[in-house]
Here is the input.
Amino acid sequence: MNILMLHVSSDLYGSSKILKQTAVALKNKGHRPIVLLSEKGPLEDELNKIGIPTTIVRLGVLRRKYLSVGGLANRVKVLFQALVSIKKICREQKIDLLYTNTTPVIIGGIASKLLGIKNLWHIHEILPDNSKEQRFFGWLINWCSGKVIVVSQAVYDNWINKIDPQKLVLLHNGIDDGQHSVQTADLRTSLNLAADTILVGMIGRVNLFKGQSYFLEIAAAVNALPHNCHFVMAGDAYPGYEYLYDHLSEQKKQLGLDGIITDLGYRTDIPVVMNELDIFVLPSIKPDPFPTVILEAMAAKKPVVATRQGGACESVVHGLTGYLVPLQDPATVAAHIVALAQNESLRIEMGKAGQQRFKHLYSISQFEASIVAEVESMLA
Here is the structure.
């Protein structure tokens, strides 16, 4: 089967990792995936290394910043150009199925209708309930797709009233845990920290909902308690959100966090960073659909502290593999972190429980078998 896979970006964060794993699983099963990306980047490099062909085509991704007369005119133009390119590729490569990864890539659904090719849409997003955006995307996805994969129960519940339930398939993400057997990089030494310092970290794109600002508030609350912690952040900003760096720098100054927190910026060695941490924190301030980074932390045997919302409530078992914590309550979160920091046996116990849960529910073998079966069922 020749499958044209369309994706929003070329980074190596959550949904991009799932796209790569899906493409690899399909290739290993004898299918021929071809990936269209809107931009060059590390994902393109990774796919090319493993023999999965990629093409760069501006896909006319629909984001909120384009919701103006000029912005919509721009999107129409880019979408038309993308459609011409997709039509040519489908004809030359004899494409049997379109696979649209993430909600904003609307050209996949549009092309499927105009070209008479079935479309499978993989949704990784939660949108405000009954908002204009959700109603529009729900109508389009329902109209264009033969099947819609959602990555968590939280995502399923978000879309169930907008998309035909018979089309919805809940399939949790899975990742390869082999990468977490890599050697550590002695982050404490590079940061001039004592060997017994407890490293508390978050990893994620810098944007308005991942919670970097809340992470700083939590660090300040921990700093008011007896502790031996140092906080680290890893991840770069979405294009257009670089201004958040200035906001975070100013917040660090106001909270007096010099020497308490280090921003590692963009890293290509995330498994190494994860292995160095003692406690992983995901302080998202809006529902995170199903954070792949939590699975990475579980695979690396790290206790997870995550805000109680979205897909985190499905992966983290409160009190067993970590803690589900409230929003806008840094003192409560800090108390959990300090309790973990002061109890090595608890950290180890929770980390082992998390890894066992990961292997049971979110292994790469389970994910690959399930995603390939769903794709193949489209043309059965």
The first strand starts at residue 2 and ends at 7. The domain at 177-361 is CATH 3.40.50.2000 (Rossmann fold).
